[in-house]
Design a protein that fits this description.
Order of helices and strands: HHHHHH
Radius of gyration: 18 Å
Helix content: 40-55%
Largest sheet: none
Number of strands: 0
Number of helices: 6
Structural class: mainly alpha
């Protein structure tokens, strides 16, 4: 099976594409193109769907439907990732094709940046100095 870290790195893109397109994410016609992570996720899912055999395509469509029906479910998203892993195990060349669709940090690896919480900062590259707080000046006591 494919490296779990590789497929897990797709999660933010998959989540965005499911939120933007719903079950239509696998459709080739009539789905508006969006920019950013949602379109990357859609490309990952469509490429997997197109390259897979009939059995994996059915499982992928079912996993997409489940993840769309329960968008907060990590289990549903995990099931979707598992179907992608199965597709990769049946078609090793697919991993290279999917890797090429992921944004790169310049070193060839996918970039996944998450910021969570008040005053958090996330950066995919070195941004120099990053300051959070109430502004410049002496510290309040």
């Amino acid at each position: 099976m494919a490296d779990a870290g590789f497929v897990d790195g797709m999660t933010p893109f998959l989540r965005e594409s499911l939120g933007a397109h719903g079950e239509q994410v696998l459709d080739s016609d009539g789905v508006p193109v969006v920019s950013g992570p949602a379109e990357v996720g859609r490309s990952l899912l469509r490429t997997t769907h197109e390259r897979a055999d009939e059995r994996v395509r059915e499982a992928l469509a079912e996993a997409v439907a489940d993840a769309v029906a329960d968008p907060g479910s990590e289990d549903a998203l995990g099931a979707l990732r598992q179907v992608i892993r199965k597709a990769l195990s049946k078609d090793p060349a697919l991993e290279g094709e999917l890797a090429a669709l992921l944004p790169s940090d310049g070193g060839g690896g996918p970039v996944v940046v998450v910021a969570s919480g008040e005053r958090s900062i996330a950066a995919g590259r070195d941004i120099g100095v990053a300051i959070t707080g109430d502004g410049p000046g002496p510290a309040k006591r």
